[in-house]
Write a structure and sequence with these properties.
The complex is a heterotrimer of chains A (about 80), B (about 260) and C (about 375).
Chain A: E1 5-9, H1 19-23, E2 29-31, E3 44-46, H2 56-60, E4 66-71
Antiparallel strand pairs in A: 1-4, 2-3
Chain B: E1 9-13, H1 32-46, E2 52-56, H2 64-67, E3 71-74, H3 80-90, E4 95-101, H4 102-108, H5 110-118, E5 124-129, E6 132-133, E7 139-140, H6 159-162, H7 168-173, E8 178-185, H8 189-207, E9 212-218, H9 222-225, H10 229-243, E10 247-251, H11 253-256
Parallel strand pairs in B: 2-3, 2-4, 4-5, 5-9, 8-9
Antiparallel strand pairs in B: 6-7, 8-10
Helix pairs in contact in B: 1-8, 4-5
Chain C: E1 3-7, H1 8-18, E2 23-26, H2 33-45, E3 49-52, H3 56-67, E4 73-77, H4 79-95, E5 99-105, H5 121-125, E6 136-138, H6 143-160, E7 163-169, H7 170-174, E8 176-180, E9 206-207, H8 214-234, E10 238-241, E11 248-251, H9 254-269, E12 274-279, E13 281-283, H10 287-294, E14 299-304, H11 309-318, E15 324-328, H12 337-349, H13 358-369
Parallel strand pairs in C: 2-3, 2-4, 4-5, 5-7, 6-7, 11-12, 11-14, 14-15
Antiparallel strand pairs in C: 1-8, 6-13, 10-12
Helix pairs in contact in C: 1-2, 1-6, 3-4, 9-12, 10-11
Amino acid sequence: MPVRGYVVVNETYCKGCELCVEACPQHVLGLDATHITAKGYHPATLIADGCTGCGICGVMCPEAAITIYREKSGVERITS
Amino acid sequence: MTTMQTENETLVYARPESLTNVSTHYCPGCTHGIAHRLIAEVIDEMGIRERMIGVASVGCSVFAYNYFNFDFVQAPHGRAPAMATGVKRVLPDKMVITYQGDGDMASIGMAEIVHAATRGENITVFFINNTNYGMTGGQMAPTTLPGQKTTSSIHGRDVETQGYPIRAAELLSQLDGSSYVVRRSLNDPKNVRLAKKAIRVALEVQARGLGFSMIEFLSICPTNWGMTPEASKKWLEEKMIPYYPLGDYKVHPAVAQIKI
Amino acid sequence: MAREFMKGNEAIAEAAVRAGVAAYFGYPITPQTELLEYMSHRMPELGRAFVQAESELATINMVYGAACTGQRVMSSSSSPGVSLMMEGVSYIAGTEIPVVLVDVMRGGPGLGNIAPAQGDYNQIVHGGGHGDYHNIVLAPSNVQEAVDFTVLAFDLAEKYRSVTVVLLDGMLGQMMEPCELPPMKPMKTEFEDWAVNGAKGRERRFLTSINLDPAAQEVTNFRLLNRWQQVEANEIRYKKYFMEDARFAVVAYGSSGRISLSAVRAARAEGIPVGLIRPITVSPFPTAAIREASKDLQGMLVVEMSSGQMLEDVLAATRHNVPTEFFGRIGGMVPYPDEVLEEIRGLVKGPLTTEGHPRERWLKRMAERI
């Protein structure tokens, strides 16, 4: 089973530059076209399953807006 | 927003403590933000936040002191290395950095950076090369490539009348006083990781009293280049890296022994 | 304390050392270079910071950085070098940090020469750098005062978070005289709550002169101005000689004040009831004192080694109500006491007038002489 992870994008910082979108090896990040931040940007968000928590989006994010989690192996993620 | 972590998951990445919780004024995609973030991450990792004194410059990074969560002073245009010299000479145990753009360091402040380097000042200089004056709206900088169009070279930089770009890393590496001078790029994850490693080395150089360190970061300026961040990255790869080759231009033997 | 026979520049350097200066930055320029040379061995000997910078531009910014840490910091230079420092002086004023500068003036404009002059009065007293700010400016007229005012300059700079300039000329810088040096002060160990020295166990601090919001800049400028009013209220210094029964007065500062004192003494020997008012703080200027003294006077003579820069401040003080004449030697020329004596005699002889401008009459007299 592949490693699973997820990201949380802080909308205070995200400016929708898409550097994370382009860098994501799983192609699971995109801009949320249905939503506009206080600064007027479409923020980045997970748009599909398959995030592995690899951290590459965080490497490219100029705003340090992304918090990245990776699930410990063999544990099902509890969604709330 | 607070970061949550349960026992079932590992925190892979979170905003470093050495950044303030302030949204930057940088344009979307501007790699000043990546440089800021990397510097803050390394400072966190080294546990030296309380020892840091930053020197901000004039240009887009004029407000750097708003974003770094440690002590800062603000220099006049180009004079950050002189100001950093003043700070470091009276507080030699503190970690002193300057953060300068290409207009600031390679044009108006050329004398100050050259002499800080040749004195072997025990400071660390972070130099952002994005080939133009960003803050004033994209004029020709000392780093503007031959033929590159800017608002003050609208037909492209003509080297016959406007001269050639300055390769700052190569230039400073020629001075006996410099200990660690490298060029990195912020265009892709691999290069960003290499840039972060270089920041660590540079700050270790200072922490160990080994003298002057400088990192040139090739950066994108999507707004003034008139491109998307994605297209800007490609332009950097295709135009900037051939003119400004990445690499280590000066690694003093004592620096080469640093193991991280 | 024993008196020592010292050159002005070196006496200032040692006075600064004893006042607890932690860092000196400078660049060689005649006629202040001995100050830099003295510091180059004295500061390292005491474990304090010394850097011979690549330019005065770098110098003032090294001073700026070091002063941001709260330490006592200084530089020295001469006219052209001080011009190069002006950007930094404005930043330092805008950042509200204490700095001591010594300006050993020489002949100008331009490269000019290395002879004594007072042609930078306006630059130092009335601005120099951009923006709304004031320097405290102390003008010694002998080596002992140069020593005393250097020590005072550090105290005033710190008290008012201000740039304080010790303004002298090449004659005083190069002159050797006996002087008494102050005892060695302990170095500063406690620092103000604005000092940038590492955010250990406290909130981060930053020092800057930027205020993008004009309203915030206005607040800053009012704060600077309010502080300046305190300086004006507390720190005006001047010296009066033979003024008790004087009907005439010479106003002169620094070297020209000293030369004028010789002339005043000679005039007194001739029975002329003349005195001398010598501003010590040329900024803030002793306006009220001069106005008050002028009320009892029939005439005044302003003597400077410039074309009448302080003259305008004297005329403003007396509101042109007192007949005033001017005498200056310029471009590096130093007036002889006899020349000033002759001017005093001329003043007394009259005609005394408040018409026209003293500078125009002086130019006419000089045209006949030169």
